[in-house]
Structures are given as structure tokens and as C-alpha cells.
Predict the 3D structure of the following.
Amino acid sequence: MAYQEEIATAGQIIGSHNGTWDSISPEAVARMRIQNRFQTGLDIARYTAKIMREDMAAYDANPAQYTQSLGCWHGFIAQQKLISVKKHFGTTKKRYLYLSGWMIAALRSDFGPLPDQSMHEKTSVPALIEELYTFLRQADSRELNLLFRDLDTARENGDAAKEAELLEKIENYETHVVPIIADIDAGFGNAEATYLLAKKMIEAGACALQIENQVSDEKQCGHQDGKVTVPHEDFLQKIRACRYAFLELGVPDGIIVARTDSLGAGLTKQIAFSKEPGDLGDQYNSFLDCEEIDASQIGNGDVVITRNGKLLKPKRLPSNLFQFRSGTGEDRCVLDCITSLQNGADLIWIETEKPHIEQIAGMVDRIREVVPNAKLAYNNSPSFNWTLNFRQQVFDAWTTEGRDMAAYDRANLMSAVYDESELGVEADERIQSFQRESAKRAGIFHHLITLPTYHTAALSTDNLAKDYFGEMGMLGYVAGVQRKEIRQGIACVKHQNMSGSDIGDDHKEAFAGEAALKAGGKDNTMNQFANAA
């Protein structure tokens, strides 16, 4: 509902109470309602799911229309990210948030820092989704509050043109609320557990759930060793559980991102159930590392299977896990993606060991032979050494071309001595264009960085600690933080305003009129930053 309509509606409600509500300002009510546009997490999930569906359709029409996100481990970090996006680009379109299970484990668990192995409390996932959206909604409230204050000033000054300009901005206000792709890990249990957690995540506002095909109780970070996958039918149960959760809660546009860790997973916990040759279970089992035996060679406790009339013994480890044949990872990834997309997933995620466009594209080409509009969410992971990987890719390409590589040591390409070299510059150009080129060539609809703010928090803290506790003292903070905030227009330099103090003052004025005790008077030291941000 538009601003003027909200004022009119509030006025009608107030006027219907025989004068007993006449001290309530219809415009103040309208402002509060507009500042609280999303009243439930389900409102957010429905709104953002529609955005994602529209963005996916736009990408299908033109792969230059890919989307991006950064992982955030706290609501304040998410809020500042979207405020920065709006400041620099004028819109939040095609920019999302990513909620990383890795960062919840490392930073938000009551157990303290944990590895990414699904050991953190699963309730912390919906709790963080709710927190992220609380801060994004507060960013809306703050920015609208500034517009309302400017509107009041324009009216006081009799500036009709400015008043009309501000009313237009209020009527066409773009929210900071954007889609969140939320990591549900491997579902934290069986399909019923996945369903129950998915409901909580959707109720908190998640429009997109990312689930992986690892065993829940053996789950590992996608860039660590020891990953164990489950048969396809087991994984499809959890995809269906997520879809049921979306449909039950009235979010039919909800997005499921099916992630395969098969490229780096060499183990499975169980042999798939198969009814007939060539079915999905048989295809899964065909990747097992087996030796052909006869009946006389079956030992105590051995597990055997048959295929094409042959008796086969899968390789079973002391951990009671079964091993896949070496070199089958890409084939398993392709089958994982096809089956997921054919059974309700909307996007796929292939966890790779390096950022290599042609490696990803080779698998996507095969997937698209069966599912032509297959699209990926891709992890531009901090677990990759991007500088080293791309310098090695350039080195290898130039070597193949027959160029003289005597000036470069492939084993030492991370060295700063190569930063300004021709090879270093070429590698940086490839890194810079990676998202654009892979969106076009490899079907990547969404580019995300899982853990960026984990690393930026550590880096900025290191710089401040080095300067402040060293020779620079207070200048370390002033020159390294505050002066940059002021000159770069970082809104948070006025931290009282960012925390909601001015919003509270306006509420107090609405509640108490001239009797309101407000914090934003002449003695508020934030007035020293009147011209900042």
C-alpha cells in the first residue's frame, strides 16, 4: 500500500473511534507501517522467492544476467553489505545473501568454534536467518526515517518541489530485503528431520535451501577430505522433504539448490537398493570399487553384489565404508545433478577442488544434454588459492602454446615478484572476469563466496590491532577507520543513528509530543558528523 493510502487508511481507523484515538497521528502510523513492510518471515520468503524466480528466467534469456552473494555470519554484517550495495549501485537487484553452515559452525555455535561437520545446533540456522532479516528490515526503517525527516524539513521550509521529490522516493522505496540462500547442510538427520528444519528456515524467511548429498552423521566441509555420499534415492527423499515444507507453508516459488560433493567424495556408507539392471540404485553401485570373485571366495561377513551375471565384492574399509573407483567423480556429479533436477531441485551446486571454467563447463554440457536449462550456484570459495590457481592455469596455457617460460617458476608462482609480471597481470584479468565468463560458458546463474566476511573481519582487526597497539596509537583508529568512514560515506560512522536512536526519538515524539525526552539534541556528539554519510 502506498504512503498516502496508508495515511488515509489510518485516518479512517482512528476516526472510527469517536474521538478517543484523536491523539494518534495517521501519518505517524503510516510511517511505522511502511517501515515494517514485512511482518513475518513467510512474507519475506514469498517476496524473495518471486525475485529469485524472475532472476532465473532473466538468466535463461541472457547469461549476462547472473546473480551474486556474499556469506554473512551476523545480521549487522548483512545489513552493512546491503547498505553498501545500494550506495554504490543504486539498487540491490541480483545481489543476495548467502548463509553458510561453515560460518555458523565456526562463529555461532554454543559449543564454541567448530569444524564444518554438522556438529552445531541446527536451531542456530533459522535463528541466523531471522537475525539477518531483522537487521535488513532495520536498514529499511533507518533509511525511510531519514526520508521522513527530510520530508518534514521540506514542509517546514515551504519547499513544495523538495516535498514532491521526497514523496516520490518514499512511494518507490526499494527495500534492503533480498533473497537468502541458506545452507541446510545434509539435512541434520533423516528426511523427517530435514523437513522439520526446512520449515523453521522458511518460517524465518529463507526462500532458497541448499542441501548436499553427504551422509548427515559423516558430513564434512566440501573442501576437506573424508566426504561420504548417499545413494540417490536417499538424497531425493530430502529434496522432496524440502519441497513439501515450501508447499505446506504457502511458498510455491521456493528454491531448492541440490549440491553434489561427489567430485571429491570417494566413499559411500551404503550400497544402493536396486530392483533391476540400469535403475538408479544400480547406476550408483556401478561406481563402486569391486573385485570379481566366485562363490568359493566369499569370506565371513563379506558383502557381495551381482552385475551382468558376475559376482562382485565391493571394497569395504575398516570404517565400514565402501570405496568408489578412482576417476569416477565427474560421472557421479553429472548423474547426481541430472537426477536432482529431474526430481524437484531448481538449481545445482557442484563443489569443485579448484576454480576452472572448462572443468565446470565440461560437466554442465553433459547435464544440459538431458536438462537443457540446468543452472548452477557456484562457490567462489576462499578455500581456493585463487592467485596460485590462475597463475598456474596461465603458466600451463602459455607452455602449451610454446612460449618461453624461463622467467617463471611454476612451483613458486605465489611469490610477490610475479605481481606485476605479464603472467601475474593475465591471471588477475582471468580472476576478474571469472564470474562473467563462467556464467556464459558454464551455466553458473549464482556466484557466491561462502566465507568472505570471516576473512575480512580477521584482516581488518589485524590491521587495527597492529596500528593501535603499536606506534600509531589513537591515530591507528582515526586514520585507519574513522577518517576513511567519513570520506567513503560509510553510514555507520554515525553509529547512534545506525543503531536506531533517531527512529526511537521520532517514536517518542509520536507517543509523548512535546514531553518526549529525546537523545538527538544539541549535546549529542553525533552532531560532529552532521555532514558525513
Remarks:
- The first helix runs from residue 3 to 15.
- The first strand starts at residue 67 and ends at 71.
